[in-house]
């Protein structure tokens, strides 16, 4: 498991660096009616006006990068890293925002560039960032027949936790470059060696890994529902279905 998503750390570091350069001037200036143009100067290079929007709390602005969100006060002095809850509705407003961002990121991945184990009578679909050397990923895949029987279609993306140039990374590439990818993936998840004569350069491992960092993967298996809900790690099949249902109900 990974303790903290690296993308989160990078986002905070870049925000702190940018604020150190521009924050003092902004904090001391008269505040315009719409401070977003000035706040953009505090944000990492490449941030767009559309990434910064008013938060549900007056005087607070939310900055979205990928599937990570942080908050800034209108005067540019304070950064808030956490969730906003509506106590009246008892909803996590930050999580609702993140769910939409996750769905957009995952829907942008072509289906042909995933490993998909379809349910014969689909009721649910999950997208799983998996590492073939992760024990809990292997446990999840070992129950694929039961998951499919319960109506769960599983769409896999690669997330070798040890990063580029490591054995887990090369195994993921070997799976994708195999003539029968699904069979190779099942063998790898069972701990068997996957050998190919030559790795194919047009494999999605690097893209999947980058997407995992952008979406905030904290460990594997990282499971995302069709509505953008996040399930942190392995659950037995029936417990997983119950959690999917709970997340879908919370979204309604």
Topology of this structure?
Blueprint: H1 6-28, H2 36-40, E1 52-54, E2 60-65, E3 68-73, E4 79-80, E5 85-86, E6 91-92, H3 93-107, E7 115-117, E8 124-130, H4 135-142, H5 144-149, E9 152-158, H6 167-176, H7 181-189, H8 205-215, E10 222-225, E11 230-232, H9 237-251
Parallel strand pairs: 8-9
Antiparallel strand pairs: 1-2, 2-3, 3-4, 5-6, 7-9, 8-10, 10-11
Helix pairs in contact: 6-7
* Average pLDDT over all residues: 86
The ordered string of helix (H) and strand (E) elements is HHEEEEEEHEEHHEHHHEEH
Fill in the CATH topology of the largest domain.
Glutaredoxin
The total strand number stands at 11
Query: Overall 3D geometry?
Result: globular
- The CATH homologous superfamily of the largest domain is termed Glutaredoxin
Sheet-strand content, in percent, reads 15-25%
Overall description:
This protein has 2 domains: 6-82, Nuclear Transport Factor 2, Chain: A (Roll), CATH 3.10.450; 105-251, Glutaredoxin (3-Layer(aba) Sandwich). The protein is 40% helix and 18% strand. It has helices at residues 6-28, 36-40, 93-107, 135-142, 144-149, 167-176, 181-189, 205-215, 237-251, and strands at residues 52-54, 60-65, 68-73, 79-80, 85-86, 91-92, 115-117, 124-130, 152-158, 222-225, 230-232. A hairpin with a 2-residue loop joins strand 2 and strand 3. It is globular and about 60 Å long. The model has no long low-confidence stretch (mean pLDDT 86).
């Amino acid at each position: 498991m990974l303790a903290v998503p690296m993308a989160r750390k990078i986002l905070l570091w870049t925000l702190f660096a940018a604020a150190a350069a521009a924050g003092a001037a902004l904090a001391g200036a008269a505040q315009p009616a719409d401070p977003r143009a000035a706040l953009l100067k505090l944000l990492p290079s490449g941030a767009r006006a559309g990434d910064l929007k008013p938060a549900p709390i007056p005087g607070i602005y939310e900055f979205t990068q990928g599937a990570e969100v942080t908050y800034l006060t209108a005067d540019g002095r304070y950064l808030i890293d956490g969730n906003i809850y509506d106590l009246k509705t008892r909803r996590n407003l930050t999580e609702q925002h993140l769910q939409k961002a996750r769905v957009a990121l995952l829907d942008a991945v072509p289906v042909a560039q995933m490993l998909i184990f379809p349910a014969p009578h689909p009721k649910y679909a999950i997208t799983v960032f998996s590492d073939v050397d992760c024990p809990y990923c292997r446990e999840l895949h070992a129950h694929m027949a039961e998951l499919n029987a319960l109506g769960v279609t599983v769409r896999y993306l690669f997330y070798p936790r040890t990063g580029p140039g490591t054995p887990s990374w090369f195994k993921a590439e070997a799976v994708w470059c195999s003539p029968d990818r699904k069979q190779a993936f099942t063998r790898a998840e069972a701990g068997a060696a996957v050998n190919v004569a030559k790795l194919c350069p047009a494999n999605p491992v690097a893209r999947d890994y980058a997407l995992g960092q952008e979406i905030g993967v904290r460990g594997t298996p990282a499971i995302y529902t069709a509505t953008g809900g996040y399930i942190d790690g392995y659950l037995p099949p029936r417990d997983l279905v119950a959690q999917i249902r709970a997340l879908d109900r919370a979204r309604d």
